[in-house]
Write the structure tokens for this entry.
Amino acid sequence: VVSTQSTEAVVSTQSTGEHIKALELDYTDEKQKKHLKEKRTQRKNRDAFVTLLNELHIRKKLDSTSLWADLYPTISKDGRYTAMLGQPGSTPLDLFKFYLEDLKSTMHEDKKTIKEVLKAADFEVKSNTSYEKFYGIITADDKTKSIDKGNIKLHFLNLIEKAERAERDARREEQRRIRKRDISFKHMLEDAEPELLHTDEWEEVRGRFEEEATYKAFNGDEKAMIKIFKDYVATITPESDSDDRSERERRRKKHKKEKKKKSKRSPSPSRD
């Protein structure tokens, strides 16, 4: 009898253990199903929000240069935005940033297409080119239909910056050329033979310099030459016309000597 009771106790214990184990498995299974359901819901919410961004992009309300702060009043009113609030993982702002990164990822290819369109239109972007003019030329070509509006704007800004830099460099180069030209003109006046007097007028002495390369470098800019001439003769005092001629001649010869030394120091062109 005792043996039978012991056996029944063991069987009962085993049955209870199996029942508990079965309950645990059911609980785990339900928990996993709930977790997967939540994951699916969260993924659907994210996909729906991306669809919202796509719609805004198609309507040209959103592009690669858009700001979250500007679009938030519109986005926050949509149920696809509110459905994502509080769920773990990527936030609406995260998805917005990822979306803009995807739009910008085509910049390199877009740049090549835009360059081709500008070349075909024989259009050069300058510092004063308006965005409206640029945008009209770009969008008139069917090849740019799929290009994001923001990428067009970014490329325009890059071209404007490049044009401004080129124009600044050109102005600096022109200023250097003018300074060098003006200095050469002044040296020409200093080296004049016979020497210039403080009473000389440009109209009277112009003919003495008209065949000089320094004169021709002004390309007829008479106003600039007259200014340099007047500034120079103003430094000649009446006394220097007679009493200090020897000193002026000494300075002139010294200047010529220094000029010749500089010329000798200049590297001669290499010969192959």
The mean pLDDT is 86. The two ends are 122 Å apart (CA to CA). Residues 2-58 form the longest helix (57 residues). The chain is about 70% helix and 0% strand.
